[in-house]
Design brief:
By secondary structure, the chain is of the alpha/beta class. The protein contains 13 helices and 19 strands. It has 2 domains: 171 residues, Flavin prenyltransferase-like (Rossmann fold, 3-Layer(aba) Sandwich), CATH 3.40.50; 209 residues, CoaB-like (Rossmann fold, 3-Layer(aba) Sandwich). An 8-stranded mixed beta sheet has the order 12-11-8-13-16-17-18-19, sandwiched between helices.
Length: 410
């Protein structure tokens, strides 16, 4: 009998944690909601629940082996990857997250996670210390940047008798999140973000630059995307991979970034200037490499255009002014200097960070002091991906309740 293709097709991956028993109820919830469900189990998962249990609940054969002669041409990972409308791994252990983050394909589940083009969600479940470990948090950040959706974890009682974050969401909550995704707080909005440094050429092999990695701007792009926005990322030279699902414009210089921003601006609802744009550039860029002919060398510099100030100063009545968010990297008097920039540039919000003693720039975590005209909020030091989500939530909260920019082209 042919399968009813009108039903949502959800593939449930089960990895080896005590919360594997909850995946049984998840399959029941999804079947009750009218979904077609197939289950893939890791070897560790079979130590907690038998494949026969999931076969009875799903009404489908359960797949456990990568090299299965009885599977479709022995290529079950490809067949399953094509079949699924959505993939959810519940529970997702620390080991599964680590293997997925690093692209391993050493069993059926991790292999099909590489092969699928369907949206992937993970429902983490592990001891709270394992969840808080820097390695797990780094894997969480990397997977999040790649577009993986995280459902949980919750905080609460754990099988080990301890309490803390790491408890898997309840099956009914996971099922509802899969079948009824809530619109994000920036749904229908278009967000323009700048990230990374600029390189101002001195000659064909040398440039003026800074230590910015672009990590915060990329995290903001991923967070805005996950909040439902259409995101355009204008970035300077960066080594990190931009997040999936955002439009990218790569530039090198402050002038090129300025041009790209102005081209995108008419259709933008929010502009977040997170790039570390050079304040000065060489007055002349030499076409040939400068030789070491002198003991000293004087390099004349000239100011670059302040992109954010230029955007803030534009008062074209035909193009509504976007909500403007700036960054202030300071080594002292953080609140005073940030407040001065907020007022001088006419911004809606500024996020200030202390970059003294090697903090913030190029590091995986940061803390922000966020200021606006009549208020402020401190965001505590945390990994930049979680910090970015907190800042995007604040921006959505502060964003005026107005219709999206009517200048946008559909």
């Amino acid at each position: 009998m042919d399968e009813d293709t009108s039903k949502p097709r959800i593939l449930v991956g089960v990895s080896g944690g005590i919360a594997a028993y909850k995946a049984c109820e998840l399959v029941r919830e999804l079947k009750r909601a009218g979904c077609a469900v197939r289950v893939v189990m890791t070897e560790g998962a079979q130590a907690f629940v038998t494949p026969l249990t999931f076969q009875a609940l799903s009404g489908e054969p359960v797949r456990t082996g990568l090299l299965d002669a009885e599977a479709e041409s022995g290529m079950d990972h490809i067949a399953l990857a094509r079949w699924a409308d959505q993939v959810v791994v519940a529970p997702a252990t620390a080991d599964l997250m680590a293997r997925m983050a690093h692209g391993q394909a050493d069993d059926l589940l991790t292999t099909l996670l590489l092969a699928t083009e369907a949206p992937v969600a993970l429902a983490p479940a592990m001891n709270h210390r394992m969840w808080a470990h820097p390695a797990t948090q780094a894997n969480h950040a990397l997977l999040h940047e790649r577009g993986v959706r995280f459902l949980g974890p919750d905080a609460g009682d754990q099988a080990c008798g301890e309490q803390g974050p790491g408890r898997m969401w309840e099956p009914a909550t996971i099922a509802h999140a899969l079948l009824h995704p809530a619109p994000g707080p920036l749904a229908g909005r278009r967000v323009l973000i700048t990230a990374g440094p600029t390189h101002e050429p001195i000659d064909p092999v040398r440039f003026l630059g800074n230590r910015s990695s672009g990590r915060m701007g990329l995290a903001l792009a991923a967070a805005a995307r996950d909040a439902g926005a259409e995101v355009t990322l204008v970035h300077g030279p960066i080594a990190l991979a931009p997040p999936a699902g955002v439009d990218r414009i790569a530039v090198d210089t402050a002038a090129a970034m300025h041009t790209a921003v102005l081209e995108q601006l008419p259709e933008v609802d929010v502009f977040i200037a997170a790039a570390a744009v050079a304040d000065y550039r060489p007055g002349e860029s030499h076409t040939e490499k400068l030789k070491k002919s002198y003991d000293t060398l004087t390099l004349p510099l000239e100011r670059t255009t302040d992109i954010l100030a230029d955007v803030a100063a534009r008062t074209d009545q035909q193009t509504p002014r976007p909500f403007l968010v700036g960054f202030a990297a300071e080594t002292g008097n953080l609140r005073e200097y940030a407040r001065g920039k907020l007022e001088a540039k006419g911004l809606d919000l500024i996020a200030a960070n202390d970059v003294s003693a090697g903090q913030a720039i190029g590091t995986p975590d940061n803390a922000l002091l966020c200021l606006w005209n009549d208020g402020e909020r401190e965001l505590a030091r945390q990994p930049k991906d979680t910090l970015a989500r907190a800042l995007i939530e604040l921006i959505a909260e502060r964003l005026p309740a107005r219709e999206p920019n009517p200048s946008r082209k559909e």
